[in-house]
Amino acid sequence: METALSWLAENWPDAIIPLAVFLASLIATFWLRRGAYDRLDRWAKKSRWPGDEIVVQATKTASALWCLLLSAYLALAVSGLPAGWKGPVGKGLGTLLLLSVTLVALSLASRFIQFYGDRLKIPQRPVSMAGQIVRVVILVTAALELLHIWGVPTSPILLVMGVAVLAGALAFRDVLPSAFAGFQLSASGHIKVGDYIKLETGEEGYVTEMDWRHTRIRAMDESTIIIPNSRLLQSTVINYGRPLKKASEPFRFYTRAHLKELTGLKASNLRQMVEILKDSPDSVVYYHTHHFLEEHNYLTPEPANDFALWVSDALGDEVLGERLASVDVFDLPSLGAIKERLVNIMEEHLSRQPNGREAPEGREFHFIKSVSVILPTPYVAHDLREFVEALRKLSLGSLYYHVFESRLRLGRGLNDFSTWLEERLEEKELAERIARLDPYTYTLEGLRSSLIQLIEKRIK
Amino acid sequence: MRLADYEPIVGRSTLEELRLLAAQLSGKVIQNINSTFTGGGVAEILSRMVPLLRQMGVDARWSVIKGNQEFFQVTKKFHNALHGREERLSPQEFSLFMETNQKNMEELDLYGDFIFVHDPQPIALVTKKKELGKRWVWRCHIDVSRPDEEVWAFLRPFIVEYDAAVFSAPAFSQQLPIRQVLISPSIDPLSDKNRELPQETIDTVLEKYQLPREKPIITQVSRFDYLKDPVGVVQAFEMVRKSIDCCLVLAGGTASDDPESDRVLAEVRERAEGNPDVHILPIPPNSDIDINALQRASTVIVQKSLKEGFGLTVSEALWKGKPVVASAVGGIPLQVKNKFTGLLSHGVEGTAYAIKQLLTNPEYARWLGENGRHHVKENFLITRHLRDYLLLFIALEHPEDVVYL
Questions:
Q1: Are residues A255 and A399 in the same domain?
Q2: Are A377 and B24 inside 8 Å of each other by CB?
Q3: CATH architecture of the domain formed by B3-186+382-396
Q4: Which residue of B has its CA nearest to A267?
Q5: Least buried of A27, A48, A80, B259, by fewest C-beta within 10 Å?
Q6: How many CB pairs under 8 A join A and B?
Q7: CB contact B14 to A (< 8 Å)
Q8: Which chain B residue has the Cα nearest residue A263?
Q9: Kindly report the CA angle at A302 between A300 and A307, in degrees rounded to 5?
Q10: Given this chain, do its domains B3-186+382-396 and B199-379 carry the same CATH topology?
C-alpha cells in the first residue's frame, strides 16, 4: 500500500491524466447519449413504424455500458501502463464490448422477427425457425470475432464451417426450397387454411394445414393430399376462397354401369311386341327407353325410344312411330307408367288396324334388359364448392345414375341432386331449378354443363 | 400398353370407374380359354384384354387348347355352319371334335374361379363343370342368328351347362335357359392397327404395295373368306368404276385356324384378273401398321360381309374417321347407324350405289366419318369392353337386376 502510494506521489500525472480523460469522456458520452436518446424518443413517438421503439428499447441499457467502455478505452490509451499490460486490458474491454453488442443484436433480431411474423400473420413455426437461424448466425459471428480479438487464427474454423454449411445444404436440398416456399406462402397470404384450392396438376380440396414444408389439403374422396410447398409455389393455383355453408349430411356420389342382358325374346310384328312388353320387367322397359342416352350421347338429343324407332324403321309405320316417340318419359313418374302408356298406344293402334305389318327378316325387335351395377365413387361433397368440383370430374355413368336412374328406376321421383340440395343444404331454389331441367333434352355432357352453370351462379 | 395411356382418349373418370369395378373382383382368377394365341379377332382381343385386366388387379389368365389340323378343319366347318352356311359334318368329324376336347379336358389345368371359354372349339370343356364347380361363361364371337340346326343341336347341350353365354349382337341370342349377355367386341385405339400414323408412313406403305395416290381408294380389309364376300366387293367396284375413276384394295391376312383362305384368294384373283385397278393384297401376319396405313389412305372403306360375328374392321375404319359402306349383318348395324355413322347396304348394287354417293359427296362422307369416330369412342373401344367383362363377372355372382356393391 505504501509502495503504491509512493508510486502515485511520484508519478501522479500518469494516474491523474487517464482518470481525467476517463471522467471527461464519460461525462461527454453520457451527455451525447442522453441527447441522442431524447431525439430518438421524440422521433419514435412521431414515427408510425413501431420498429424504432424496438431499437430504442434494445439499445438503451447497453449504450450506457458502451459509454463506460469507450471512456475506459480512451483512458487506457493515454495511460502510461506498460505495453504488456495495455494489450490484455484492451482485449478485455473489446471482449466486453463484443458481448454487449452481441446481446443487443440478439435482442434486436428476435424482436424484429417476432414483430414482422405477427404483422404478416406468419405461423409461429417458420417465425421461430427464422429466429433460431438468425441467433445462430449472430452467435457464430460473435464467437469468431472474439477469437480474432484474442489472436486465435479463424481461417481453419471458417473452412470447417463452410464445409459443414455446404454438407448441410446438400443434405437438406429437398427440404430447403419447401421451407423457403413455405415462408413465402405464409408471408404472401395468398393461400390460407380453410381455402378451397385447385392445382393445375389436378389436386384440389380444402387446405387443412400449412407447415414450413408441406400444405395438406382434404380431397373430395376425403383423403389427405400432402403437397410440398415448393410445388405449390411453382404451380398455377385457383383459390376459391373460404368454405361455403356445410350440408347437414355430405353427398356421396355413386356410379352405375349397366350390363345388357339378352332375353332371347323377339318380336316380328306389333302384336308380338305388345304381348312381350306387357310381361316385361322394368329393367327391359328401362333399357329400351334409356340406352340411347348413353350410346348415342354424341348426337344431339335423340329422344326416341327403341319401340318408336323400330315401328318406324322396321314396320314402316311412321304415324305410330311418332306417337310412341312422343311419350314424355320425363313427365311420367315410373317405369310402370311408361310401359302402360306405350302398351296403351300400341293396343289402341291394333284395335283399329289388327293386321299390322311384319318386320323384314333380320329386322326383328330383340328385347334386352339392363342390369345395373351400382357402386360408390370416392367423391364426397360437403358443400356447393365440393359438389360442383365433383360434378366436373364425374363419369357420365355417375351423372346418369343420380339424374335418370334414381328418379325412375329406383322410384325416387326426383333426381338425387335436388333431393340433397333441398334437404341437406337448404338450397330450395337451386334444387327446384335443377329438378325443372328436363334431362332428356340434353346430351349428357350438355346436362353436366348446365348443372355446373346453375351451381356456379348460385355460389357467386 | 398401360391403362393410363388410354386416359387422353377416354378420360380419367372412365378409368376410375374401371378400377372401382376391378376392385370388386380382387382375389378371383379369370381363366380365358380359346384355340389360338395368334391370328383372328379373338386372339387379338385377348392379347390386349388380359394384360389390361391384370394391370387393374384382376388375375386374368389365358390358356389355349391343343388340336391338330383335322380338328381345326372340323371347327372351321362348325364356324361356317353356325354362320348359317351349309356344311356336311360326318359322325367321324363330331367324334374328332369330342376326342380333342376330351384330351384337352385331361391335359388342361382348369384353375380359374371364372372359366371363360371363347367360341366353339373348346366348348365341351364345360363337361368338367360338374366335377370342378366354378362359374363358366361361353363367349360366342360368331353370328349365330341362323345357325345350322345340326351343329347347333350338337353344341346346345354344352351351352346350357354354362352359367352364362355372351353374344356380340342382339340378333345372335337364342331361347336358352341360361343368362345371355350382350357384349360387343372392341378395338384398341393404341394398337399398331389403330394408332395415329404420320403421313410419311402412309406414303411408304402405298409405295410398298404400289398403290396409286392420285385416285380415290376403296378398301375392304378382311380375311379371304367366303363370308366376307370379296368377289361381291369386286363386282360392286366394277359398277362404281364405270363412272368414277378409282381403285379397289382387298387386303387381308390369314389365321392359323383358317385353312380355307387360300381357296378364296384364288377365286378373287380369278375374278379380278386383267383389272389393273383391283389390288389384291394378302397381308402377312404382324403387318398391323400396313393395314392401318391402308385404311387411313382410303377414301371409302367397305365391309360387304354376308355373315359377320361383329365386323370389327368397321369400327377400325370408323375410328379413323373414314366413311363406311357395310352390309347390315351381324354386329355391323350396331356400329353403323345408317345415314348417321355410315351407310348400310344389302347387296352388290346397294353397295355400289352407296360408294358412289360417298365419292361424289365428300362433305357428307366427312360428316359420317366424324360421327362414326364419336360412336366408336363411346361404344367400341377396349375400355368399354373391359368394363363389360368386369360387369359380367360381377353380375354372375348377383342374379338381381339392380346390384348394389
A1: yes
A2: no
A3: 3-Layer(aba) Sandwich (3.40)
A4: B171
A5: A48
A6: 108
A7: yes
A8: B180
A9: 170
A10: yes
Rounded Cα distance between A127 and A135, Å, is: 12
Q: What is the pLDDT of residues B110-132, one digit of tens each?
A: 999 999 999 999 999 999 999 99
* Per-residue pLDDT, A433: 93
Q: What domain range includes position A286?
A: 251-459
Q: Select from 3.40.50.12500, 3.40.50.2000, 3.40.640.10, 3.30.450.20 the CATH code of B199-379.
A: 3.40.50.2000
If contacts are CB pairs under 8 Å, which of residues 128-147 in chain B contact chain A?
145
Q: Say whether A409 and B402 touch across the interface (CB within 8 A).
A: yes
Q: Where are the domains of chain B?
A: 3-186+382-396, 199-379
Strand residue runs (E) in A347-396: 365-381
Q: Which of B176, B387, B398 sits opposite A264 (nearest CB)?
A: B176
**Same domain? A163 vs A33:** yes
Shortest distance, CA B354 to any CA of chain A (angstroms): 19
Residues A281-322: pLDDT tens digits?
A: 999 999 999 887 777 766 655 557 889 989 988 898 989 999
The answer, yes or no, to whether residue A268 has pLDDT greater than 80, is yes
Question: Is residue A182, in this structure, part of any structural domain at all?
Answer: no
Question: Residue A374: which of A405, A345, A403 has the closest Cα?
Answer: A405
The model's pTM is: 0.74
Residues A420, A293, single domain; the answer is yes
Angle A80-A86-A90 from CA coordinates, rounded to 5°? 130
B residues 298-357 near A, CB within 8 Å?
328-329, 337, 340
- Partners of A371 on chain B (C-beta within 8 Å) are 391, 395, 401-403
Q: Which amino acid type is present at position B175?
A: Q
> How distant, in Å, are the alpha carbons of A28, A63, A93, B230 from that of A24?
6, 17, 18, 122
**CATH code, A215:** 2.30.30.60
C-alpha cell at B71: 380338328
A261, A281, A397: residue with CB nearest B180: A261
Radius of gyration of the CA atoms of chain B, in A: 21
ipTM score for this prediction: 0.85
DSSP state for residue B37 in the 8-state scheme: S
Interface test with B, best of A223, A258, A259 (most B CBs within 10 A): A259
Number of domains in chain A: 3
